[in-house]
Known about the structure:
The chain is mainly alpha-helical. Helices cover 66% and strands 6% of the residues.
Amino acid sequence: MFWHSFKNTLKYLLRQREMVFWALVFPIILGIFFKLAFGNIMADSKFETINVAVNEDLLEDQYFKSFLEEMEEEKYFKLTKTSDENILVRDSDVKAYIASMDKIYTKKSGIDESIVETIMNVYLQKSSLIGRLMAKDPTTDLTKFLDIEDHIEDVSRKNMDPVNTFFYTLLGMTTIYGYMWGMYVIYQYEANLSVNAKRNTVAPTKKRLTLSAAILASWLINFSINLIFIFYLKEILAVDFGDKFSLIILLSALSSLTGVVYGIFLGVSNKLSLNIKQGLGIATTMFMSFLAGMMVPDMKILIAERLPLLGKINPVTLITDAVYSLYYYESSQRFMENIFYLSLITLVLGALSLYFMRGKEYESL
């Protein structure tokens, strides 16, 4: 009887085209829009070598010449040696012209121009410091003062990609959209919700057994959709999930259950019509996604700083942060914290659903 109920529920749910659209097709469409909107952000923000012109007379200073050559070797600067003070007008690619040690000309104020000015200021400060130290003690070790690694730090590494957060939030939203499967299942087994549920209630079968089979079927569908969606993000949209993929699967399995249980809770906790409950589910899921930073990235940070408890009870935030923590951190501690809170939410929703379903008796069906 268990497997018979499981099979029938599986067939019934997969025939609900509207649910398949919202659970899978809609997130895929959003993913395409996200890729079109944000796909080139990292490429545009990655540090590129700055074209800098330098007065040839300054290169007579061997220390300064060595410094500039090292900057060019490290691909921070691309140098043009010239005595033409109009180089900025003549060459549109040149961002700055170093006329003297304390005089730099630029076409405009911008990030590249600020970087050149900052590097030159640091060089002058270190030169002055070294001069004072050598005058005081000629045997001073100058190694740490000659290191240029701290002039520029290119933080555009793969694990700093902010665009990934949008897709992680989208994954969280897709998982919780699985509430529809749970809601439809409970509508087949709570006699006060639908005609089919009345038939199932009076059928000579154990409700606990058949309901468990139906919940398993709804969880399997939601889990499968999430795996398909993860594959789509990873292989089609080239979203990087890091190298701890087994934990991503674990998270997907748990969060799929959270979505289903949330749908059951929405179904049994009130007497609204099915259409209103569906709309309520969509609205709450989108609101949770908003709080998780899908529309406004800074919202998640704002919530974490001012209302941290709200982040702990928002399943979309927990899913997003769990995926992000696997991608960004070597340790799994933060991931396990998110798993704990997500498990707690699932248990609470399940307990509340059982409370609303407990020992109901009907005078007539």
